[in-house]
Amino acid sequence: MSSHIKAGQPALYLGERVMVEEWVGHDQVLVTAGTDIFQVGITQLHPIGNAVQNLQKTALVSIPADQWSKAAERCRLLRSVSDDPNNRSIGIARVAKELGVSERQAWRLFKVFRNNPTVKAMVQIKAGRRVGCKVLPAAVERVIDQWMQEFYFTPERPSIQQLHAFVAADCRTKGLSPPCLSAVTTRVQNQSQDRSNEAGRIGSKNAKYKFQAMPGHVDAKAPLERVEIDHTPLDVMVRSDEPRWDYIGRPWLTVAIDVYTRCVLGIHIGFEPPSVLSVALCLTHCVLPKNPEEEFGVPMEWPMAGVPKEIVVDNGRDFTSEAFARGCEQYGILLTFRPVGSPHYGGTIERLIGTMVGKCHMLPGTTKNSVVARGDYDSRRKAVMTLSQFRTWFVEQLLGGYHHCKHDGIRMPPASKWALSTGAANET
Predict the structure, then answer these.
(1) How far is CA 198 from the centre of its chain?
(2) Does 29 map to a domain?
(3) Which end of the chain has a smaller Cβ tally under 10 Å, C or N?
(4) CB neighbours (10 Å) of residue 366?
(5) Do residues 323 and 410 share a domain?
(6) What is 182-209 written as a DSSP string?
(7) Would 132 be classed as within a structural domain?
(8) Could you report the per-residue pLDDT of 46-75, keeping only the tens digit for each?
(9) Cα 370 from Cα 32, distance rounded (Å)
């Protein structure tokens, strides 16, 4: 029931009525009780249903007003016939006249009323087939089902039009009338709701993401309690700072983010691919106090620093190395690995990487995010920034933009969250 809690909804907390104000993360909410406001876990709340909203979901309210008024009139007339059993034939004749139907139809309505004397029972059922009714012969249904299983739900991913062509040809061979394209499409849509069918077409992993909820994000309770580290190539070509080499390539970003505040604790940007060295440099930058003006030529504050209690990483060789494991153990840092093939367990850093990589698409020399998006743009020839210039630009975007923009996950800018949680706001 807690998953249905919404802002503005009343709920019970420890037996007392409270009002849910807003969500904090994925499993915490702010609630008010009188003049008090506090944060609780959603599993501790029991939502109180809104009577009006609940009634609006019933089948009675779903009946159109004009149909309901006609049904109520039928019910009133037939109830008068039921209350006068001695003059039932006269009463039925009167009902037939007032409703504009034959007496035979009036008797049928009266029979329905006697079995179920309610207004809803008098609502006329629309003519036509019921929803979900199948009218194709069983033999044709078997042909469609066979071709769906053996042809459509396969890794080759044929189109519905191709499936229909094979079904129609098979039906003609067997002397059956071929179904239309829309009939085949409807059956494909119904069968696509089965996870095992979709797994045959898109793979078991993609089917899992499509049909199964993806829990895995873990909220921290304090700064530095949980830090995620990851690498990514950046979508831009830059030049080396050494003019004699004139090397042009895509730099790699190694970044560490604090899950509680969403602040970036440390970075390393270089041409070298991910390695134990890049992880060590990023972690060193994360732990030590930073001077952005001296390091990057950016005169801004970067107060976020400290030794993490837990570091969450993927299963790359640079993270699974013995050197990295022992380095974490040396300083009492818990090293946690994401489950293999489950990137959603690192959702916080994945979103940050997506945000920062997207900013690179406005730079000269951008590679965009795909060959199609890049078109005939020559990224290498357009590259003008050096690696050091790119680092300066990146830190400016980080400290002047990302840290001071409202983050939807924490409902405030990361820098403000860090200041509030570390007491820096009170000190200043």
Answers:
(1) 19
(2) yes
(3) C
(4) 20
(5) yes
(6) HHHHHHHHHHTTSHHHHHHHH-HHHHHH
(7) no
(8) 777 655 555 555 567 777 888 888 888 988
(9) 48
How far lies 359's CA from each of 14, 16, 266, 354, 355, in Å? 46, 48, 18, 9, 7
Phi, psi (deg, nearest 5) at residue 328: -65, -45
Distances, alpha carbon 356 to alpha carbons 83, 151, 237, 330, in Å: 77, 42, 15, 32
Helix, strand, coil: what percent of the chain each, to 5? 50, 15, 35
Asked if 304 and 265 count as a contact pair (C-beta separation under 8 A), the reply is yes
243 lies in a domain?
Answer: yes
Of 155, 67, 24, nearest to 417 (Cα)?
24
Which domain range does residue 168 map to? 138-190
Q: For 347-368, write each residue's pLDDT tens digit.
A: 677 778 878 888 888 899 999 8
Total domains present in the chain? 4
Give the domain-ending residue among 95, 122, 149: 122
Q: Which residue has the tokens 């979103």?
A: 351
In this structure, what token pair is assigned to residue 11?
């709920």
Q: Does residue 303 surpass a pLDDT of 90? A: yes
Q: How far apart are CA 342 and CA 340, in angstroms?
A: 6
Between 386 and 208, name the one with better pLDDT: 386
Which strands form 28-33's sheet, in the order they lie side by side? 36-41, 28-33, 16-24, 10-13, 45-47
Within a domain: 69: no
Q: Where are the beta strands (DSSP E) in 156-286?
A: 227-233, 238-239, 248-249, 252-258, 264-270
Phi, psi of 268 (to 5 degrees): -145, 125
Residues 238 and 302 grouped into a single domain: yes
Mean pLDDT for 87-96 is 90
Residues 181 and 327 reside in one and the same domain:
no
What is the C-alpha separation between 229 and 333, in angstroms, rounded?
13
Written as one letter, the residue type at 428 is T
